[in-house]
Design a protein that fits this description.
about 240 residues, alpha/beta, TIM Barrel, eight-stranded mixed sheet, 9 helices, globular, binds zinc ion
């Protein structure tokens, strides 16, 4: 049986459009029985999110809360089609885990080649661990190039439960995920399921993503959530 024991992409109040505190998210993760929680605030280019100094002080925070390990990181904004990011390496090197994303307020969508170049440019940064929600119908992607780059750069691709939920606002991502998952299975590229929770009730909620993986017959051994040891090979938190 597969035990999904981690949710690594969540947001707290300081992201500016999320609704719970750090402690409330930690309590929710404990209630859900998670082993690892990631708190990954939006980086400064997202309107309303926090200043880079917030990310520079993560060393102040304990990582162990009883049986729960908390990783502190960031969801970076990819700013252009060259893949420039909105925090410098000097800050990223202190992060436990780093996601990179295309978000409409921070980068206007380009064509398929441009959007794919943006992701591949971001993956060239050695601190980027995961590409978040590569599923947005507004940002068409060449999935073959994306998956090959992820393999080459040793970067995880996310299956985002919030995108897949009926309240998802990125268009219907199922077609994109079917193509992505097919290529990941072919190329042996692992995926990470995340809730992208912006509220405590959503922490650890991965049901839509698991349902899709099951429908597609995606191999369990390529789902990092069920293999915490594999996670260590992909994140900056080497002490995990
Ligand atoms: Zn957000
Ligand atoms: Zn995002």
């Amino acid at each position: 049986m597969i035990v999904d024991m981690m949710d690594l992409h969540t947001h707290t109040l300081v992201s500016g459009h999320a609704y719970n505190t750090r402690n409330e998210m930690i309590e929710a993760a404990k209630r859900k029985g998670l082993g690892i929680l990631g708190i990954t605030e939006h980086a400064p280019a997202m309107p309303g999110s926090c200043h880079s100094m917030y990310f520079m002080n993560y060393r102040a925070l304990p990582r162990k809360h009883g049986d729960l390990t908390v990783l502190y990181g960031v969801e970076l904004n990819i700013l252009d089609f060259a893949g420039h990011l909105d925090l410098p390496d000097s800050v990223l090197k202190g992060m436990d885990i780093v996601f990179a994303s295309l978000h409409i307020p921070c980068c206007a969508p380009g064509n398929e080649r441009e959007n794919t170049d943006a992701y591949i440019g971001a993956m060239a940064n050695p601190y980027v661990n995961v590409i978040a929600h590569p599923d947005d119908a507004r940002f068409p992607i060449d999935y073959q190039r994306l998956v090959r780059a992820a393999k080459e750069r040793h970067v995880l691709l996310e299956v985002n439960n919030a995108s897949l939920s009926p309240e998802g606002f990125r268009g219907d991502p199922r077609k994109q995920y079917k193509e992505l998952l097919g290529l990941c299975a072919e190329e042996d590229v692992p995926v990470l399921i995340s809730s992208d929770a912006h509220v405590d009730a959503a922490v650890g909620e991965h049901g839509y993503a698991w349902e899709l993986l099951e429908q597609e017959g995606f191999p369990d051994e390529l789902v990092v959530n069920a293999h915490p040891k594999m996670l260590r090979e992909y994140v900056n938190a080497k002490w995990l």
